Structure formats: structure tokens, C-alpha cells
Amino acid sequence: MLCLLLVWGSSTAFSINYQKEFGDDWTQAEKFVKEHRTEWKQIFEEFEVDADIATAIVFPELIRYSRWQDAIETAAVNGLYISGGKEKANFSIGRFQMKPSFAEEIDEEWNKSKLAREFNFLFDTRDASDARRNRLKRLGTLEGQCRYLAIFIRLMFLRHPRLQTLPKEQQIRFLATAYNRSHTASWEQNLRMQKQCHFHTDMIKTRSTKTYRYSDIAVTFYHFQ
After folding, report:
1. pTM (2 decimals)?
2. Terminal Cα distance for the chain, rounded
3. Half-sphere exposure (CA, 13 Å, Cβ side) for 198?
4. What is the pLDDT of residues 59-107, one digit of tens each?
5. How does 19-28 read in b/e, with b if 16+ C-beta sit within 10 Å?
6. How confident is the model over 149-205, as pLDDT tens digits?
């Protein structure tokens, strides 16, 4: 497996031209962002989240998004998750590739946080088919996924107050790594994961699959916006 490395100096210098590396996939993802930027910005601002940071976090997912694969996984989730929960089906769905388990954890953490009182709404976190159906409805729209992304970011800043003290590029690295690898990881675990190459765009990962640091792609796009 090839892990593509970066050259680090006093300022980050990218050794990979990601636009060239991902070609049409990058171009299509960038076009999609431009088409939806205005409506996304309204949602992110509703939650007092920096729209450029939020978009950068999910941009790698837009690069590798497969409509055909998503249709299959969404059908599987709809068929099994509603009746059996995440133990039966927990595929990533939608443009931002969010799993039902991720949404469940965000729902529960939001309800326990001061943000739920500040914004005056709670999620239905019952272990019931109608609650799971409504959760999938939220995940099934771009608006719903944008709201989950914004809430994820607010919760991360609440859980890790020192994020506020970091430059925006480092905030993106931390948040993108948490989004892609584990949003429940500790600060130290996240910093270690930032150095690892796991992201790829192959349908099935093989020995020859090229892997990248998810956060590097997110930061690259942030500077292109």
C-alpha cells in the first residue's frame, strides 16, 4: 500500500497536487460545492459555524462520492436500520457519507449539551423504529446532513475548548480527522491519527490502493475556496 507523504516545514508545503491527483473527481466535487454554497452557508450560519471550515471538512467525501454505491447502501440502510438498528445496517449514506451510528451519537450528545437549551430543540433518541425512520429522513437530505455537520462542529468545539486557540488550518485538520476517523477520540489520539494515511477513492481497497491523509485534502481545498 502506498502512503503518500507530505513535506512539512515552518508552513505546510504540499508535495501532492490534489487537483491533478483526483482530476475530474476533484472538479465535479468543486462544482457541486459552488452550486450549493449559498444554501449551505445559511445552515452553517444558523449554528454559528464557519461555512468554509465546514465545507472543507466534507470535501474529501464529495471527491469519492459514488451515486451508484450510495443508492445501494441507502436502500440497505432503509430496509434494515429502521427495523433492526445500527447492528443490522450501518452504511455511510449521502454526499457527506454519514453513518446512522454517527447521527445517533450526535443526537445523544446534543441532547445532553448546553447547546440543546441554547437552540431550544432536542432529538428523539428512543430505541424505536419511528425515531430511526426520522433520523434517516434527516440523513437523507443535503439540508439534514449540513445540520448534522454543523452540530458535529459545535459539539467538537464544546468538547475540546482549546480548538478555539488554534489557527484555522489546524482546526480543520483536527475536525476533519475526527469526522473521518473518530469523533469520540481524545485530543492525543486525534493528533496521532492526523499522521496516518487511510483515505482512498477505490471502490474496494487492495494492496495497490493509494491512500492519503484525509485532513491534507480538506486543508488543500480550504485554501482553494
Report:
1. 0.92
2. 31
3. 15
4. 999 999 988 889 889 998 999 999 999 999 999 999 999 999 999 999 9
5. eebbeeebee
6. 999 999 999 999 999 999 999 999 999 999 999 999 999 999 999 999 999 999 889
**Look-up of cell digits 465546514:** 54
